[in-house]
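assembly run, all chains below
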Amino acid sequence: MWWKERCIACRDCQKVCIKGAISFLDDYLLLNQLKCDLCRACVDACHSQALKLVGKKMTVTQVIKKIEKDMIFYDQSGGGVTFSGGEPLMQPHFLHSLLKACRELGIHTAIDTSGFANSEVLLKISKHVDLILYDLKVINDEKHVKFTGVSNKPILENLKKLSGYRRKIIVRFALIPSVNDDEKDIQELGAFVSSLKSVKELSILPYHKAGVEKFKRLMKPKNSLFIGSLPSDEKLSEIERKLKNFGLKIQTGG
Amino acid sequence: MMSKRVEHLREQSVNTKPYISTERAELLTDFYQSGVADAVSTPVARALAFRYLLENKTICINEGELIVGERGRAPKATPTYPELCCHTLEDLEVLDSRERTPFLVSEEVKRIYCEKVIPFWKGKTMRERVFAAMSEEWTNAFDSGVFTEFMEQRSPGHAVLDGKIYHKGFLDFKKEIKHKLNNLDYFTDPSAYRKEQELKAMNIAMDALIIFAERHAKKARELAEVETNPQRKIELEKIADACSHVPACPPRNFWEALQMYWFIHLGIVTELNVWDSFSPGRLDQHLYPFYKKDLEEGKLTKDFAKELLECFWIKFNNQPAPPKVDITEEQSATYQDFALINVGGLKENGADGVNELSYLILDVLEKMRLIQPSVCIQLSNKNLDRFLKRALEVVKVGFGQPSIFNTDVIIQEFLRAGKSMKDARDGGPSGCVTISAFGKESCTLTGYCNWPKILELTLNDGVDPQTGKRIGLQTGNPSNFTSFNELMAAYKKQLQYFVDIKIRGNNIIERLYADYMPAPFMSLLFDDCIEKAKDYHDGGPRYNSTYIQGVGIGTLTDSLSAVKYHVFDTKKLTMEELLDVLKNNFEAGEKIRKMLLNETPKYGNDDDYVDIIAQLVFDAYFDVLDGRPNTKEGEYRINLLPTTVHIYFGQVTGATPDGRKTGEPLSEGISPSQGADQNGPTAVIKSAAKIDHAKTGGTLLNQKFMPQLLADETGIDKLSHLVRTYFKLGGHHLQFNVVDAETLRKAQKNPEKFRDLIVRVAGYSDYFVDIGKELQDEIIARTEHRSF
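ok done. output:
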């Protein structure tokens, strides 16, 4: 990621890049992502913190050490740790080890998943986790394919299975105006979620534009996904009301 | 809803601009010119001067008010104290015209100063005595900004009252004094005469306040006679009745209890210009018996109790801190006079002290939104979450109050310092942060100590690069240091050197106050001054603690961490290179500055690499100060707080190894350097709790949140967990600012539209538009924690 406002255009990053992946157009950094091999030489050379390599490699022990630092807060608040992503199930073995280690320490755990995963993997992981935050985008499969590129069949199937095993689940619904907010979307969502035995709670996550700035920093072209406007408060409370009618506990945000 | 009366009084208080009144200065000059003072001992002269002031000053009863008495002749009329600091004509010009905390000065005031006040007091003030008595080393360090001096314009105070005045009237005190006088042993006690004079002075001082109250009673009766509104007529008669009763006799009801305190408050702030005004302390504890009794007897309603408290609140706000000039102004640039009202905590028997009045006081605070008085909650493990959450709801309103103190740790601090369990439970924070045993302690803050400046001097072998003058020890050229420990050792030597200079100065100043400026009125209110027949300034109180407040732990820790990390550990920089860029204030060294700024392990991130350094510098300060004797049979303690001095100290401190440029503010309190904490509030709390708060008399950790974070109950819940966790970890004190940066920027551009925007500055709240651009910028820059 590159922060324009932090960059002092000293071009040290360009000088240290042996792959020649970095060039400048006036004050703008251009990164050739095909040439870049993530060696992080440019990041180390940048004292302004204008360049940052997102993510870092850590061992289970290192992650647990970090989690342990906040244990006193969990004690006080009854909180714990949530593994999110990306998609945490992309690293099932790592996640499995972390969850087991947390359980030994008595730390409450949650995962935040899209549910688009191998059923066996998901079920195995679910045994070691206290709470599953399960994202549902839209029930209509056509729309799902259109906006995410994949079918939601495995997602819905997985959720039914988890519910069958009575796992503690909160469904999270990212509400995006003119994508998944029409009457049919809401009714289908409410009907499906309320049919699940172990799901009592649904969180509405109103669409926001925090990602726009992030995309800029990632030096990616403006993505076609940034289409929606923010949901209005009236619309939001209307949807809340409708979903509540299905007997679900609704929380907005969080 | 605020009543019409309160609304009107509040308006008047908020909208009247502070102005200088010469009444006190003139009366005092008349008294000392009369020659009466020359014929008696110093304590008696001071008491007679006090009586002369209270016999002659204008009596003011504002329209509609229920609690009466002003320090000046009207709200915001601010007296001066020429016996402490006699303002010059230039001072008066500055006061009148300065951007920050101005005081209107009329031509008439200037004329009176010119013709009467200055000619008499020049050469006789405490300020002149203090500066004349200081060594060259002291003056050098003071001029360079290594430390400041509290006693050069205001007198020792920081005093908080306990509950004695609510069941003992002055006639009872007088009996005690008479008994003491009758039993003085002139044969074997060599100080019998000195004691006699002090006791006589106390006696005169009490008469003075009784006369003052009686004058109010008379005025109220006069007003009642001509009053046409029958309801107000009754009120004025009640006021007259109360003023004839207190302070001579103990208060009979809730209303009189407030009036009793207020007269005493006015006595204290008329006698001398004490630091940190004066405070009633644990008002919910003191007033509860009256409140309960009056309610039960049907003499009081909850609403009227609230209205009385609101009227009481306005009285505090009517009295801005008397004008400060020069460095004293820089270190404490505010109208706020640090009167503090404490609620919650424990009862004397260790039980939960929260009562109905604790909540009522929080309601009043929330509604009044005034910069004075401040309110703090003393939070114990025994207090319910409901109490904390109610306090946080008030915090949410957005003016930085109440601040939240950890009573359980404070009790530990008191016990460590040798106080009894009873006195420990009765005490608490006073002024903005520091703890004292209420009604029993002279807890004197004597000045701030600029830690990063001492590092700057260490890095320059004792020479102040700002002036080229050698003011410190020669601890060696740091380029020859081969380890971080050598640097620490050199820093500790410089620290010891400057602390010694400051203590030597303090020892003299304490004696100057004891000899020339006794305070018989304040003394009689503090145990055991009557018993010992000794003045407040001379070690009369049961406990006598002296503080030198440490400032800049964030900047110093990060700077040392930068040297350790970049010079000694990773060796990315040599000491020469570092000293060179610091000398040039990073000109042509922006890349190095960014490296120091961004790639140094910094305090506030729960990173042991650097938090251990914070512990080291904390321990270094504790070791050179704690337990050293003062001249009042008391001891030195440490505390870490800045008021506004981190701005001034920043101005006099060159570039520091943490990447801070010359002149930029230092970190405040024990908060991380502005922008250094990047792992959220939980990490800040973990770092801040690694220093041993129980070994201090107080610390200040500031956290700023956007109001939307606290919008719902979940937000309040989370914040309450944060507080409880910090306190579990032994933290002393937390305060929150709940405003968003955007609002602050708007306020900076259009101050007139944001007159009533109050922010928590550092241990106190102030009007944002009054605090000056630099401090405004800093508050905007302080990390905004967007989520937990």
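Chain B touches chain A through 21 residues (CB under 8 Å).

Chain B is about 50% helix and 10% strand.

not gonna interpret more than that til we talk
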